[in-house]
Amino acid sequence: MSFESLGLRAELLRAVTEKGYTTPSPIQQQAIPYILDGRDIMGGAQTGTGKTAGFTLPLLQRLMSPTSAKKGRPIRALVLTPTRELAAQVAESVDSYGKHLPLKSTVIFGGVSINPQIKKIRDGVDILVATPGRLLDHVSQKTVDLSQVEILVLDEADRMLDMGFIRDIRKVLALLPKQKQTLLFSATFSDEIKQLSNKLLNSPALVEVAQRNTASERVTQVVHPVDKNRKRELLSFLIGSQNWQQVLVFTRTKHGANRLTEQLNTDGISAAAIHGNKSQGARTKALAEFKSGKIRVLVATDIAARGIDIDQLPHVVNYELPNVAEDYVHRIGRTGRAGNEGEAMSLVCVDELKLLKDIERLIKREIPKVVFDDYKPDPSIKPEPIQNGRGRQTAGKKHTANNNNRRPSSPHVNKQNRSYRSAQQAG
Ligand code: AMP
Predict the structure, then answer these.
(1) Phi-psi region of 398 (alpha: psi -120 to 50; beta: other; left: phi over 0)
(2) One domain for residues 110 and 178
(3) Cα(367)–Cα(356) distance, rounded to whole angstroms?
(4) pTM of this structure
């Protein structure tokens, strides 16, 4: 299938060709025709599937049809994303796919001055990409008018709910016209997502793609059993001995990310941390330096890493396993993209064996274990509860049971009562 056959206009096809894409990705093949038809969409897809172009291209095309707006240049499309990084990335896509069209867009997120944003909006934009918090700041300052929005996109809706944005989202929804096209994308489908979509979507078309990388042959997964207090040493050894130049490392907490970053730098391995307590400037700088190869290791928490698009990332290391098994899938989705081979390593100590079991159950396979002779776990060390960084201690079992409640694994979506396999299950 070609982009031409999807019925996209010449300016968009030109932009796509300039990006070097020749074939629409599965989510694009499925979603674009529905969106062009004006249908609501319930999309099961995460970053890495090409979902951004999947909604941006048809959205731009629809905005090229004349507006019924009386005067001025009202905001006609609103894209909500959970994180600043994702907002910036989506805005970049809107710019590049729309570069041959006379449409204007801007992006607003917190952590930076609001005044330049106010000016841009005042000058008139057709498409606004926003994080919910900063959008509501603009609403309360009356610097944004959402009354003429024709298309709403909720990108990574599950993550927005996880991050506690549901009330903000409801407030935003109340400001939008009832009559509009809504596109909701989510990697997982919890009860909360189902409730939201039932309220929000009108006979949605379901589009889903198997999560790339879940059971992907492109990603080699391996577990290295190791004692907790020797993980840092093993990580430095792995990076140094194999001369890795670009590694994304996940920790469970912001504090853990900072500490590991300092230790790696002490070991002579250039590293930077990216997490929610870092200023926007520091996050952007760290990401840019990582992408350009100036630093070798980016240490990230799950939320900060979500949605970051780094092409061809060869190595992902789970320095600590995530508490939520699905986050493992998101993490390893950072590697082996765009047809490249990737390697995902997990350093697992005795405290984390229960979490590992949950992950293996979710991905429906056992991950091979490789023990390094010099880093054999000491069998006399007993498991301890996992520290979560917020003064909370979690015993593995109880915690995972809670998480399973939070994100049920056999979701059932939508008014037509069609069952919707979660992306994980589809993999
Ligand atoms: P996304 O899932 O939207 O974050 O996109 C993941 C990556 O795939 C981005 O780097 C896109 O630029 C790229 N991409 C999107 N669509 C295509 C396509 N049809 N062919 C090749 N690469 C694509």
Answers:
(1) alpha
(2) yes
(3) 9
(4) 0.60
Amino acid at 237: F
Nearest CA to ligand 1 atom 11: 50
Task: Determine which residue's CA is closest to atom 1 belonging to ligand 1.
Answer: 50
Backbone angles phi, psi at 201, to 5 degrees: -100, 145
SS3 content of the chain, % helix, strand, coil (to 5): 40, 15, 45
Same structural domain, 171 and 244: no
Answer yes or no: do 117 and 157 share one domain: yes
Q: Considering the domain boundaries, does residue 45 fall inside one?
A: yes
Note whether 339 and 403 are within 8 A (CB): no
Burial of 116 (0-12, 13-18, 19+ CB in 10 A): exposed
Quote the domain boundaries for residue 10.
Answer: 4-208
One domain, residues 289 and 194: no
Claim to verify: residue 104 and residue 239 sit in the same structural domain: no
Block mean pLDDT (10 aa), the chain, length 427:
93 95 91 96 84 96 82 93 92 97 97 96 97 96 96 94 91 96 89 88 86 54 95 94 91 94 94 86 87 93 72 85 88 68 91 94 86 93 78 38 33 28 26
Q: In 10 A of CB 8, how many CB atoms?
A: 23
- Give the total number of structural domains in the chain: 2
Q: Judge whether 398 and 385 are in contact, CB under 8 Å.
A: no
Around ligand 1, the residues with Cβ closer than 6 Å are: 21, 23-25, 28, 47-53, 309, 311
Tell me the CA–centroid distance for residue 21 and ligand 1, in Å: 8
Inter-residue contact 258 to 286 (CB < 8 Å): no
